[in-house]
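Reviewers of the previous submission asked for a worked example of the structure-prediction workflow described in the proposal, so we include one complete record here. The input consisted solely of the amino acid sequence. No template or homolog information was supplied to the procedure at any stage.
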Amino acid sequence: MAKNGLVQSRVIILFTTLVVVGIIGYIVSLVARGYQFDIDKFKFLANGILVVKSDPDGASIYVNGDLRGATNQNLKLSPSSYDIEVKKDGHISWKKRLNIKKEEVTQISAQLFKTAASLSPITFDGATNPIVSSDFSKIAYINNQGLWVMSVSSLPIGFPNEPKKITDALSTSSKYAFSPNSREILLTTDNGTYLLNSNEFTAQNQRVNIGSKVDETLKTWNKEKTQKDTAELKYLPLELNDIFKRKVSKFSFSPDATMVMYQASSEAKIKENLIPTLPGSSTQQQERDIKIGKTYIYDIKEDKNFEVGDENNNLYWLPTSRHLISAETGKIVIMDYDGTNRQTVFSGNYIAPHAYPFVNASKLLILTNLGSDSQIPNLYSLSIK
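From that input alone, the workflow returned the following structure tokens.
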């Protein structure tokens, strides 16, 4: 009997242990999925988790106007719509309305820009008709000394980043264009057309007029661009790839190739659910009926399509791949890729649409005469981070 009692006790202990472990495991799984115990209702309630990060770090998080802590933490919120604001002294506040869903993690990364951006001159002898290469890595411009090219990158200290003279003896009426890979410049003057290396100096008396080879050069460049476009379009779902080939006038992929900005040349409808829906994907209002002349952003990972402007907007990718620069008359705006959270990072005299990003997204390159009509415009570095 004693032996049977001992066995029964062990069974009860084992069973109790399994039950307790099971209950604890179940509670842990609920907490991990965002559930929170409500003392008043004496039960676990389903929540969503909001993950808030910011650059720079250490910003304050406000939910419906109430301070809820600092960035780089998880907030448990009941399923609903919330007005989220991220604030930091000396920076423009980040604002967006988000829909929180139960048992889903919503992640946001707020880029905060300075409230008082600082200007530093890059050129001093004028910069006429600046153009940017297709990959936004270089800027070319003319002044009374010749044609110059500047790398729009932030190199380590000790490495030169000043503009380089590419050729001399030019008039401001000269025309020029970058090759698709930005390694060459096609220069057209009153005396001829020349193909120049964009990384080294070629004196006037060393320039070679390519004459009849201009069409051949342009044909080669168009072929390179077509091949590049075809390769990039492979990132898109098959149906959207077909729309882009027939009903889109121009497009540009984000630097990390996860999104694409495009302008519609014809009306079309993007079908729903081209890819499976991801948990925690954007809840911002999208537009899948595309219209002529409108500009859109398609998120390849989340199968979301957002209207961000029209043919009158000058929009460029910021290297973060999550933001756009809108070069508008009298101001420069940075917005999230879905068209929300428009932040004016510069307001004043500059020559639109000449506002281009540096590679590390901390600065913009703008063309301005600082409001003086008697001065020749120059290129300035605008520090926004």
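Residues 2-32 form one domain. We consider this example representative of the routine output the project will generate in years two and three.
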